[in-house]
Amino acid sequence: MSYLSLRQTRLGLMLDSLRRALSEMSPVPDSDWHRFECLFREVRLQRHEVFISEGSIPDTFVFVYSGLLRLFYTTERGREYNKEFRWENEFLASYSAFNFRRPTRFTVQALEDTVLLVAPYHEVEQLYEHSTYWQGIGRRLAERMVADKEEKEAQLLMDSPRLRYEQLQKKFPELMSRLSDYHIASYLGITPIGFGRIKQQIG
Questions:
Q1: Residue boundaries of the structural domains of the chain
Q2: CA nearest 42: which of 84, 6, 79?
Q3: Percent of the chain beyond pLDDT 70?
Q4: pTM to 2 decimal places
Q5: Which CATH architecture fits 3-133?
């Protein structure tokens, strides 16, 4: 089998995963899918490689085929605060950066060797304008992003650090073994020392 055939086969498998992930929200009609799948290319990241840098204006709609990403803020003093994580079958797009042409204030970095499917966001947005199916998908993804943001804000304001950790364990048990204590503590908004105490309390 030629290199081109192998590449097409691999890309086809990746696109199949993307279609399955979308179909969990709403089955993708063939006509809409064919216009969508041709927008994507494969991007491979090595562990610790930065995909989107703070201060840039990203124009990407991303599907994580394999691996793990973190989205984090960095203060002027160099302290990092993890905002979110994205892993297999998750989507990533910086709506505010694209829609308002604002430089993003966070960085996206691979925590593992990672494979992505990436499409130009402005071309995805054109599909939104001409297809009721993609309008619905865009709305669901935006609603999911807002709901996740509200949930984390409420946890940071209302819940104790220990309860936040227990909720994270319960919601994403498969993720815990893939994250270092440093990254978990940063996501929970506590110091590594405080997180160590919580782990000792839990046992």
A1: 3-133
A2: 6
A3: 93
A4: 0.90
A5: Sandwich (2.60)
